[in-house]
Design brief:
alpha+beta; 6 helices; three-stranded antiparallel sheet; two-stranded antiparallel ribbon; 7 strands; elongated; 243 residues; 30% helix
């Protein structure tokens, strides 16, 4: 039997003899197809590999050991930055074929970065920009280390984006919040404009109120509903002209 080198694997089945399969080098044109062939069907979405799938096969494809896989948040979501999250993911790994007794001498580090906000994220996930950015950044780091050609991780693609954001975006109060506040205020006989002013919020234009401030107002109304004795006298008297 021919001697097997490090780029050859032996496969067999019940009907055939052992067959040597040459594993392409990372510099070969066939490398990307080989790596993708290691993925199962449920680790692809429309032929794009998922980050989970790339993470699973990473050590197999590169014959390496992951030393660390860490995430750094470079920018946190804030109303002033359109609720944008910027994340950097770093992967450090050592090739098993190089200095196997002392892998720390051959540590390779790759980074991947991603920024996510309402303009590049599916609506269903846009309230979780840090989590989405983390997954995308890790996917990019894995792709870079694996040196995949013309491949994008499934999580980097978005299909349902708001092209023209309005008051329903994540940075501003939503119509659903406005309707909920109005219903609660009617039930409790509370003047919303006075309530907003009492909580240092401008009542001039309700659509300028942030999503987070609206959440706090709803929490306060829910608290008043549980104990109406806490409602301040100076905010009593519902009026529908606050919207």
């Amino acid at each position: 039997m021919a001697k097997k080198d490090k780029n050859t694997e032996i496969v067999s089945n019940e009907t055939t003899a052992e067959v040597s399969i040459k594993i392409p080098k990372i510099t070969d044109l066939e490398w990307t197809d080989y790596v993708l062939s290691l993925l199962s069907d449920d680790e692809k979405i429309s032929d794009n590999p998922t980050t989970d799938g790339l993470r699973r096969i990473f050590e197999i494809a590169l014959n390496c050991k992951v030393i660390s896989s860490t995430t750094t948040i470079a920018q946190s979501p804030d109303p002033n930055n359109e609720k944008r999250a910027t994340v950097v993911h770093s992967i450090a790994y050592a090739l098993n074929s190089e200095s196997p007794s002392r892998p720390e001498l051959n540590v390779i580090t790759v980074d991947g970065a991603a920024d996510v906000y309402w303009g590049n994220c599916d609506k269903v996930y846009r309230n979780h920009p840090v989590a989405v950015a983390e997954t995308r950044a890790e996917g990019r780091a894995l792709r870079r280390a694996l040196k995949l050609r013309k491949v994008v991780a499934a999580e980097e693609l978005s299909k349902d984006i708001d092209d023209n954001p309005d008051a329903n975006t994540v940075s501003k109060i939503s119509n659903a919040q406005i309707n909920f506040i109005d219903i609660m205020a009617q039930r409790l006989n509370i003047n919303v404009s006075k309530l907003l002013t009492e909580n240092q919020l401008s009542a001039d234009n309700i659509y300028n109120i942030s999503h987070d401030d609206a959440v706090n107002i709803i929490r306060l109304l829910s608290k008043y509903q549980q104990n109406t004795s806490e409602i301040l006298d100076n905010i009593v008297g519902y009026s529908g002209d606050w919207k």
